[in-house]
């Protein structure tokens, strides 16, 4: 069984990935750019989603292997990107060594994250970089609401999403903060962390992503105790420009295998 909550191959799945690209490709490419990418590098992009980062890497390096359990949205990849449909809970579909391994918003979803981390460290070339970006469980505090009752609605849906539905499917909201220690324990060096965090208003990518995730997880949220009326009001709130809340805090942890 695939524990992953969302359906990457669906239309909502495509919108989900498009929102992520618009929200996060800028901090991701900023982070990757500062590692000193070179044209001879072999890269592994895991949970590749829409392929936006695989394509960005392909323009700067020699080879990119892009892996996802559902490759439906990887239809427009650059020459130099090899696509593999593979369940990463079973390990890696290709052998290393890789000079760069990157995964964004993947390991927090996988209950087997510790075993995968070990495999990624094994697959790194000496001196190679591991770069993992995951979001934390920091509360998504409200900044502005059109009506005081909207705050309670927002908090109820966040509670069900983050404390009931997603943990039952193996999501870890502590993994992002644990990653530096795990990388050090796995023998990596030069461990460094970047934090990225913005607020998001109704009708913009952050709130549209919340709305999208709420639609994709509807059966799970109803089973967890949300009502259909609450879901309808929440989705309308996510379109209202008078609503604003903190968006997820993204932590990027990167480290190197000793040369
Ligand atoms: C939240 S999305 C992130 C996509 C992309 N990395 C980004 O940040 O835009 C998680 C991705 O991991 C993929 N995924 C989930 N479980 C997986 C598994 N067991 N093996 C490989 N890929 C998986 C999903 O299909 C999806 O594309």
From TrEMBL:
Signal peptide: none annotated. InterPro entries: SAM-dependent_MTases_sf. Keywords: Methyltransferase, Transferase. GO terms for biological process: methylation. It comes from the Bacteria. GO terms for molecular function: methyltransferase activity. PANTHER family: PUTATIVE (AFU_ORTHOLOGUE AFUA_2G14390)-RELATED, TRANS-ACONITATE 2-METHYLTRANSFERASE-RELATED. This is Methyltransferase domain-containing protein. It comes from Kribbella sp. HUAS MG21.
């Amino acid at each position: 069984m695939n524990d992953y909550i969302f359906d990457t191959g669906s239309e909502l799945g495509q919108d989900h990935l498009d929102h992520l690209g618009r929200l996060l490709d800028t901090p991701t490419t900023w982070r990757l750019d500062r590692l000193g990418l070179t044209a001879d590098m072999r890269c592994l992009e895991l949970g590749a989603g829409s392929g936006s980062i695989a394509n960005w890497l392909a323009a700067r390096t020699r080879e990119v292997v892009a892996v996802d359990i559902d490759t439906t949205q990887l239809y427009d990849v650059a020459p130099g990107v090899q696509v593999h449909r593979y369940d990463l809970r079973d390990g890696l579909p290709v052998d290393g060594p890789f000079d760069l391994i990157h995964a964004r918003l993947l390991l927090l979803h996988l209950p087997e994250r510790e075993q995968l981390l070990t495999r990624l460290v094994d697959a790194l070339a000496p001196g190679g970089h591991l770069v993992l970006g995951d979001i934390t469980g920091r509360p998504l505090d409200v900044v502005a609401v059109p009506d005081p009752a909207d705050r309670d609605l927002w908090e109820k849906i966040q509670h069900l999403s983050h404390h009931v539905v997603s943990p039952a499917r193996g999501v870890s909201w502590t993994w992002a903060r644990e990653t530096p220690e795990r990388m050090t324990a796995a023998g990596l060096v030069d461990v460094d962390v970047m934090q990225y965090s913005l607020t998001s208003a109704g009708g913009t990518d952050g709130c549209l992503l919340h709305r999208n995730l709420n639609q994709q997880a509807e059966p799970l949220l109803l089973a967890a105790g949300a009502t259909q009326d609450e879901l309808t009001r929440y989705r309308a709130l996510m379109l209202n420009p008078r609503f604003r809340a903190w968006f997820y805090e993204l932590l990027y942890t990167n480290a190197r295998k000793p040369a």
